[in-house]
Amino acid sequence: MDQPFSPVAWINGCLCPFENASVPIWDLGVVAGASVTEMARTFRHIPFRLDQHLERFVQSVKGLGMPLPWDFSVLREAAHQVVAENCGGLSPEADLGLVVFQTAGVNPTYLQGDSSGKGTTAVHTFPLPFGTWKFSFENGVRLRIPSVRQIPEECLPVHYKIRNRLHWWLADQEAASKEAGSKALLLDLKGNVAETSTSCFFAVCKGEVLSADSGVLNSMSRRIVEELCQSLQIPFRRTTIARSILDDAEECFLSSTPVCLLPVSSIDGSPVGTGRPGPVFNHLVNAWSDLCGVDLRSQILHCPK
């Protein structure tokens, strides 16, 4: 009889069963939310642009002054090893999300003043839940602008991919309370458009793709959107996006590493454009599919149950 598949994770240099992977309760990643993370994904079970993701991860950890006991090559090998192990339980149509994180160390107060611990370094995967995104890919994401604002760079370095995301959770809770199933689109303290809790935001105005130029994550998926726009000769600009610009947007969409692209159907209850996925979104989906060698529409819309 075949044994049930059991995924693995890599924690502080060792492989372990995924179900046993854990972070100590005295770790500052738990105590203070002090941790840096990175997320890549696979296409056809092969990590996509892994080196770029790991480079951003290492730069973020060093930029925040956190310890990183492992060098780039070790992390890269660990990521490939975990993916290879965990793809054994996937169907050919499925793919993995790949997560790396580093915490800031131990909380010495909990350990009688001992601050010698290096924290937790982890690499793990999870099957990408394409069914979760199917409705939004077909019909669009409904966004709501909450009272919660984006934390300014002077208070928190939001351009780094960090795990301290309480304000995003509060924003999404508020959005969902106003309209079930909606997500939050945050503004900054000046009232300009920032991003969502999981995605980079884009508005298409007069045929030009606009994205916030400051106070947002240094997004890997946005780099790809910019790259694809250039190849498709679609104007692209990083700029300040005033809230009023959204009223005249022909279409809006989101990008993120796991799902790549999602259209936006409405903002604060008002339809964006036709309320359906627009031509720029569709062109970019086709171009991204060519780039990664996977038909994104088919993978999301016809994912196995």
Topology:
Elements: E1 8-11, E2 14-17, H1 28-31, E3 35-43, E4 46-47, H2 50-63, H3 72-86, E5 96-103, E6 121-127, H4 130-139, E7 141-144, H5 166-178, E8 183-187, E9 193-196, E10 200-205, E11 208-212, H6 220-232, E12 236-239, E13 251-256, E14 260-267, E15 270-271, H7 279-292, H8 296-301
Helix pairs in contact: 2-3, 6-7
Question: Care to give the gist of this entry?
Answer:
By secondary structure, the chain is of the alpha+beta class. It contains eight helices and 15 strands. Helices cover 29% and strands 26% of the residues.
Defining traits:
six-stranded antiparallel sheet, 305 residues, alpha+beta, D-amino Acid Aminotransferase, Chain A, domain 2
What separation lies between the terminal Cα atoms? 24 Å
Q: What characterizes the major β-sheet?
A: 9 strands, mixed
What's the name of the CATH homologous superfamily of the largest domain?
A: D-amino Acid Aminotransferase, subunit A, domain 2
CATH topology of the largest domain: D-amino Acid Aminotransferase, Chain A, domain 2
For the record, the CATH architecture of the largest domain stands as Alpha-Beta Barrel
Q: How would you sum up this structure, described in words?
A:
Helix content is 29%, strand content 26%. It has helices spanning 28-31, 50-63, 72-86, 130-139, 166-178, 220-232, 279-292, 296-301, and strands spanning 8-11, 14-17, 35-43, 46-47, 96-103, 121-127, 141-144, 183-187, 193-196, 200-205, 208-212, 236-239, 251-256, 260-267, 270-271. Strands 7, 8, 9, 10, 11, 12, 13, 14 and 15 form a nine-stranded mixed sheet that branches. A six-stranded antiparallel sheet has the order 2-1-6-5-3-4. The chain is globular, with a radius of gyration of 20 Å.
